[in-house]
Write a structure and sequence with these properties.
Elements: E1 4-13, E2 26-37, E3 40-46, H1 51-54, E4 59-70, E5 72-78, H2 92-103, H3 110-126, E6 129-135, H4 140-152, E7 157-160, E8 162-163, H5 176-190, E9 196-202, H6 210-222, E10 227-232, H7 236-245, H8 252-258, E11 266-270, H9 276-285, E12 288-291, H10 293-299, H11 306-311, E13 315-318, H12 330-343, H13 350-364, E14 382-385, H14 391-397, H15 403-413, E15 419-424, E16 427-428
Parallel strand pairs: 1-4, 5-6, 6-7, 7-9, 8-9, 9-10, 10-11, 11-12, 12-13
Antiparallel strand pairs: 1-2, 2-3, 4-14, 14-15, 15-16
Helix pairs in contact: 3-4, 4-5, 5-6, 12-15, 13-15
Bound molecules: guanine and zinc ion (ZN).
Cofactor: Zn(2+)
Pathway: Purine metabolism; guanine degradation; xanthine from guanine: step 1/1
InterPro entries: Amidohydro-rel (IPR006680), Guanine_deaminase (IPR014311), Metal-dep_hydrolase_composite (IPR011059), Metal_Hydrolase (IPR032466), Metallo-dep_hydrolases (IPR051607)
């Protein structure tokens, strides 16, 4: 692994943009250089002869006129659902029962899991995503397969075995004891290995008994530095079912609160139909609400209310939620996110979008010094964006004058074809088109 100097237009956020024109929120270098070595960013600054002194033997890779940014981060995605994507259903529960709970049973087969884990990492890299918070299936072998693949590629990944012991087919059920034992064994095996992190993953309140929730709480008490990921308040039918299952608890968020599962390392997918009490609980505990726009539109779950959550200082992440979500691309995801918020009469500026898919999501994961940034010392996980990759985009670029306009074009029209390269731990990882 030799050192590399990536030359191009460099963009990295340093703060959350306070509006569409907050030029203090980012660092932009028109003719910039990012020096990477041993998987880390060594320096970032203007391209000039002095750069060579930092790493005299470095290979120089000229990415001009493309944009060099931190790799994208996806805070909620299901790898066993690669072959569920695009499945036709009336609502969440029909979609889960008809397709998802059938498909996930195939992950009892370690070979199948290994094949899909590899294809999954290929897709993330193709779309410029270098870190994701990933749901595996209930089977420990699905978690082993995923972490083994991520480790082989030296990717920074968060993942966990879904714990589920009711309201699903027999082949997808563990028991409170097995859920605990298997999660603990996987956590001890993988958390902290290379760039891997474990997430305790009770799937959602609907598929866990009280006994299983208690066991998840035991895990969180024993391993307080580990992530927790689950779903909440995605669809009305789901909420009604949870109310029947936990009649003595105030609401859906109240279930996770009761079992001690909220906190700054807790990622809660969806958070669409929220009461004021639930929002206050997220805010007080520092839990993260994860916005999954393509999934919410595709399944017809509802429109995320970003301003209402922000008004209560709830931390927010953004994610694809494949296979409920319809694209691996964080660009496509933020494009749909923009449209959801337009329908709500809320603004999402291009600067805010690109902040969210990089530093914002890194903050949601409490990893802002490690990923989502090009500051020296951070992981060299980098994406190179080509806003002229498609003819219609190149034409539009003839009239683009400002960085924000270019970002908005990338978000509105971009997909894997605008990802000129993805670097994982300093190495080019995107397979060139054949
Ligand atoms: N709620 C519980 N499991 C799932 C899932 O796999 N996808 C979505 N979108 N919602 C869920
Ligand atoms: Zn999900």
């Amino acid at each position: 692994m030799t050192a590399k100097i990536l030359r191009g237009r460099v963009l990295t956020f340093i703060a959350e943009p306070s509006g569409a024109d907050d030029h203090e929120s980012y660092r932009y270098i028109e003719d910039g250089a990012v020096v990477v070595d041993q998987g880390r960013i060594v320096s970032v600054g203007e391209w000039n002869e002095g750069v060579r002194l930092v790493a005299p033997k470095a290979e120089i890779i000229d990415h001009r006129p493309n944009l060099i940014m931190p790799g994208f981060i996806d805070t909620h995605i299901h790898y066993p659902q690669m072959q569920v994507i695009g499945s036709y259903a009336k609502d969440l529960l029909e979609w889960l029962n008809t397709y998802t709970f059938v498909e996930e049973q195939r992950f009892a087969d370690a070979e199948h899991a290994a094949r899909i884990a590899s294809l999954f990492c290929d897709e993330l890299v193709r779309y410029g995503t270098t870190t994701a918070a990933v749901y595996c299936s209930v089977h420990p072998q699905s978690v082993d397969a995923f972490f083994a693949e991520a480790k082989k590629r030296d990717m920074r990944m968060i993942a966990g075995k879904v714990m589920m012991d009711r309201n699903a087919p027999q082949g997808l059920l563990d028991t409170p004891r097995r859920g605990y034992d298997e999660s603990k064994a996987l956590l001890e095996k993988w958390d902290g290995v290379g760039r891997l992190h474990y997430a305790i993953t009770p799937r959602f309140a609907l598929t866990s008994t009280h006994a299983q929730m208690e066991m998840a709480q035991d895990l969180v008490r024993e391993f307080p530095d580990v992530y927790v990921q689950t779903h909440v308040n995605e669809s009305l039918g789901e909420i009604e079912f949870v109310r029947e299952l936990f009649p003595n608890l105030p609401d859906y968020v109240g279930v996770y609160e009761h079992y001690g599962l909220l906190g700054p390392r807790t990622l809660l997918g969806h958070c669409i139909h929220m009461t004021d009490r639930e929002i206050a609980a997220l805010s007080e505990t520092g839990s993260v609400a994860v916005f999954c726009p393509t999934s919410n539109l595709f399944i017809g779950s509802g429109l995320f209310d970003r301003e209402r959550l922000m008004a209560s200082n709830v931390r927010i992440g953004v994610a694809t939620d494949v296979g409920g979500g319809t694209s691996y691309s964080m660009l496509r995801t933020l494009d749909e996110g923009y449209k959801v918020l337009q329908l709500r009469g809320q603004r999402l500026s291009p600067l805010e979008s690109f902040f969210m898919m990089t530093l914002g999501n890194a903050r949601a994961l409490l990893l802002e010094h490690t990923i989502g940034t090009l500051e020296p010392g951070a992981d060299a996980d980098i994406v190179v964006l080509d806003a002229r990759a498609l003819p219609h985009m190149a034409l539009k670029m003839e009239q683009v004058e400002h960085l924000s306009e270019e970002l908005f074009l990338l978000q509105t029209c971009g997909d894997d074809r605008v990802i000129a390269q993805t670097y994982v731990a300093g190495e080019a990882a995107k397979t060139p088109p054949s």
